Amino acid sequence: MTRRSEGRLADPGPTDDELEQILRAATTVPDHGRLQPWRLVVVREDARGAFGDALAAAAGRHDGNLDGGRAAKIRAKAFEAPVLVALAARVRKKSSVPRWEQVASAACMGYVVTLAAHELGIGAIWKTSRHLDGKEIRRVLDLGRADVPLGWVNLGRQVKPARPRREADLATVARVLEPDGTPRPYRSGP
To answer: In this structure, is residue 155 part of a structural domain?
Structure first.
């Protein structure tokens, strides 16, 4: 209940042991058919440059008017945290498991990465870009044509304390199905 997205992260990143715990936790997501339809790519240290270059190249390919300043800003996203964990759905076309379920399973990994990091006292935030797809991104993340890039999770130490999060009003987002088949707004208590 206390997990928050941490926008400003600093060194040190997770230790090797912490990172392995985070990745192992991520592999516990629901996985219909045991397909493991997901991929995680750890990006740290100098490899962030290759990831940043791929982000900027993909943005340039999608936006023909991308100037040098904007390209540098997009490339800089790779350096916002000491460690990044890129996420992708490795979609198996010849499977009885629908594509959407495979992508949903991979998307669950992103949230589990943030939860596991929080449990270990590591700040995390899931990031994405509207220019996340492109041959450069697919190359650095080792993705095939059917695979779906889902963003990346920045990992590092909190720079400042997290602000409290406003709780969701469950009556507006949750329903309870009554025996007569009528959905009613959720309310706590009996």
So the answer is: yes
